[in-house]
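Closing statement on the NDP sub-project.
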Amino acid sequence: STQIQLAARPVGWPKASDFRTVTVELGALQPGQVRVKNEFMSVDPYMRGRMNDVKSYVAPYELDATMLGGAVGRVIESASDDVPVGALVVHAFGWRDVVQEDAAGFRVVEEIPGLASSVYLGMLGMTGLTAYVGLTEIAKLKQGDTVFVSGAAGAVGTAVGQIARLKGARRVIGSAGSAEKVALLTSKYGYDAALNYKDGPVREQLASLATEGIDVFFDNVGGDHLEAALNSFNDGGRAALCGAISAYNTTEPVAGPRNMSNLVTRGLTMKGFTVGNYAEHAPAFYAEMGPWLQNGEVVFDETVVDGIDHAVDAFLGLMRGENVGKMLVRI
Ligand code: NDP
């Protein structure tokens, strides 16, 4: 099995020498084990946090050990009745081409005809669920709300805009980092308006697009985006804090929004969340998202990098914004 290990803890932006590729001999299958050939592995922003040796909601990656992450693959050998040969499985043993572990570590997915297995890592997987939980449970989206989404052209963001629209948002505004992404948000993803945060201060750009204010903010970016949202909120506004990617590779302390007093004066609610704590919403999510995908009410993009040898490049590309929709590695 070809596997990618963390060789050194990155300082600031990770570099190639922080990782190493190894070949691991897999022994004979033990009772209860399965062997899975991975088809796609996920690269995700949270993995940057796991490369640091700090206490967080997921354990740090161990040095000189194969990294973990979401992946989807096909069972090629099985010593378990629950997870038979041929089953498509989603699991957390990414960063390798073949994995052999106890069957309990794998979730068999019900395949939807016409959808490639990669969808179970994106729109019908962790990032889709994050968007769904964040909007419905955390931000308590209501009919008629105006919604602002940062990181809108990424895996989570493209899901947020479409779910908001399907759940009755009145106006959906997105932010992304290129003219192409901004155009895609309005032409393909149901956004009413979008801004390029590299074109000028987000606070001013948002104010001009949200002349009647915003009710919900779904934040993937933090920093200036959060400050802009706090400025544009209507009374009783709600923010779901999902991520703060603008700070993941910085070594300096991050400045907070300078206008937090709006929380008081406008009666705002801000709530952070990690999707792992909301797994009980997964069945409701699958029940809605499956049909939305099948009947074309939800569309998606994937940016696919070929070969496990390019997995680190895919991860760095994600952090630089080279993806539209879900960033994936085809194994
Ligand atoms: P994306 O597909 O959105 O990819 C990351 C994107 O972030 C890039 O494409 C880039 O787009 C943007 N970006 C990078 N640097 C900056 C910056 N300095 N300022 C603004 N945008 C930047 O990734 P995901 O959809 O997987 O994740 C989105 C966010 O959601 C992340 O913050 C992640 O940590 C968080 N997350 C949280 C979860 C939870 O449970 N709370 C679960 C999953 C994800 P651009 O070209 O627009 O800059």
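The CA atoms of residues 32 and 128 lie 31 Å apart. With this model delivered, the sub-project is considered complete and its resources will be redirected to Aim 3.
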